[in-house]
Amino acid sequence: MADTKPLNIGLIGYGFMGRAHSNAYRKVNSFFDLQYQPVLKACCARNEEAIQQFAQNWGYESYETDWQTLIARDDIDAIDICAPNHLHCEIAVAAARAGKMILCEKPLARTLAEAEKMCAAVEAAGVPTMVWYNYRRVPAIALAKQLVTEGRVGKPFHYRALYLQDWTIAADVPQGGNTLWRLDLDVAGSGVTGDLLAHSIDTAEWLNGPIQSVSAHTETFVKERIHQETGKMQPVGIDDACMFLAVFENGSMGTFESSRYARGRKNYNTLELNGENGSIYFDLEDHQWLQYFKYADPSTGEKTEDHLTGWQKIHVTNFEHPYMKQWWVPGCTIGYEHTFINACADFLQGLADGTPAEPVFRHGMRTQKICEAVLESARTGRWTDT
Ligand SMILES: NC(=O)c1ccc[n+]([C@@H]2O[C@H](COP(=O)([O-])OP(=O)(O)OC[C@H]3O[C@@H](n4cnc5c(N)ncnc54)[C@H](O)[C@@H]3O)[C@@H](O)[C@H]2O)c1
What we know:
CATH architecture of the largest domain: 2-Layer Sandwich
CATH superfamily of the largest domain: Dihydrodipicolinate Reductase, domain 2
Bound molecules: nicotinamide-adenine-dinucleotide
Distance between the termini: 46 Å
Order of helices and strands: EHEHEHEHEHEHEHHEEEEEEEEEHHE
């Protein structure tokens, strides 16, 4: 479109998220009517051959092998951090000081202290930010938010979240290095708590309000693994599994469970919210559906007739459903990658409106605070306030 404003992107990291975000930048303006248009100006990673190939594959105009050089470039408007967690803080603080907008992958940081530093830097610089908690942009989860807002769940009693995977069960899976940094405490900051439960926590607070206190238990099933960088057997510092109880400010109770030892579970991310007027249930591995149990109409208080009660399985593909009018015709589904395109659209729309798309860094810091409280509770064996 002739009258769009270019937004020059400098993306750091060419792995899983580097690909997901690049795809989003390329497609977003073809599906959403937006004032801003991302321009794939430069991408960055240490390995020159790999980043050159990535730049070519995704259509970046240029590449860098040092993120500081990327940040110093005048022709970059926004830095997108798709690097492992240990780099988020240093990159974000430097980018904020250089006056760049920042889009950062989750978890915002390894620790609350890092997240606070990042938040202070971007707020002092006054730069727009977004944390890629992309599950808020799954249409069925956005519809769940709408149902909660409309009072269809009513007074909440229970929130239940599971996030299960099974890829670290074998004791001979190494830790660290380029491919298994998630198992290295120094790089990741934590195990399933920061990697998986951070998603569940972000969604839970978005749908059900602030968590007040937590009581957690964590386990590390394989205590030592060979480190890919040193070649030596080293202690494993991350949590392989975490379960916690939560009390929400609204008086409801929550249970959260995450593991990378749930045989057969690949990216099993579910949530259920039970309230006085109804319940909602979502499963990421079946993400085009939202399940809703209607007990009573929130506006009239009228109860569903007994013989008609039951769970409704809503296929979230109608034009009336969140994001769906931008995509295909009713009945045709979208996928995982579209959550990043939807998020990107919201960020660009937020720039045009002056109303930042959430979660911004301050929300990411809040999730970090809860992750930290969970880990502290697991260490002390006590309930911990958030
Ligand atoms: N939103 C989500 O659902 C989601 C999913 C996966 C990962 N993530 C997050 O995204 C981030 C990246 O994860 P990933 O799965 O893409 O990891 P990955 O290992 O696939 O990719 C990481 C990239 O960072 C690059 N990198 C490492 N050190 C660097 C440095 N010093 N300078 C420049 N580049 C460097 C690597 O070369 C690699 O390209 C993590 O914070 C992770 O938690 C989020």
